[in-house]
Amino acid sequence: PPGTNVQQFTPPKGDELQSELFNRITQHLDEPEKPMILALSRPDKRKNIVSLIEAYGQSEILQQHANVLIIAGNRDDIDDLERG
């Protein structure tokens, strides 16, 4: 694809479900075999992470069919975070 460094970013190999990262994430899940809803962004009010949490928390159907994983980044200085 245009703009993608194919030396660094490659298609999945098929063994991702046995990776250390996958195991570290899924050890906290009751049903790790369910599909994952992944939200990846900086912790910014404009990214509307709260709405995702509310929608997932209020939807029994979503909870039955998928896990949710939110990776909200980090900041070098906690004082840089927006006030909640």
Q: What sort of overall outline do the alpha carbons produce when their principal axes are compared?
A: extended
Sheet with most strands: 2 strands, parallel
Q: How does the helix and strand content classify structurally?
A: alpha+beta
Strand content: 5-15%
The ordered H/E elements are HEHHE
Unreliable residue runs: none
Q: Can you list the strand order of the major beta sheet?
A: 1-2
Number of H/I helices: 3
Q: If you had to describe this structure to a student in words, what would you say it looks like?
A:
With 84 residues, this protein is α+β, with helices and mostly antiparallel strands. The protein has a domain at 34-84. It has 3 helices and 2 strands; from the N terminus they run αβααβ. Strands 1-2 form a two-stranded parallel ribbon. The longest helix is centred in the middle third of the chain and has 10 residues, at 49-58. It starts with 19 loop residues before the first helix and ends in a 13-residue tail after the last strand.
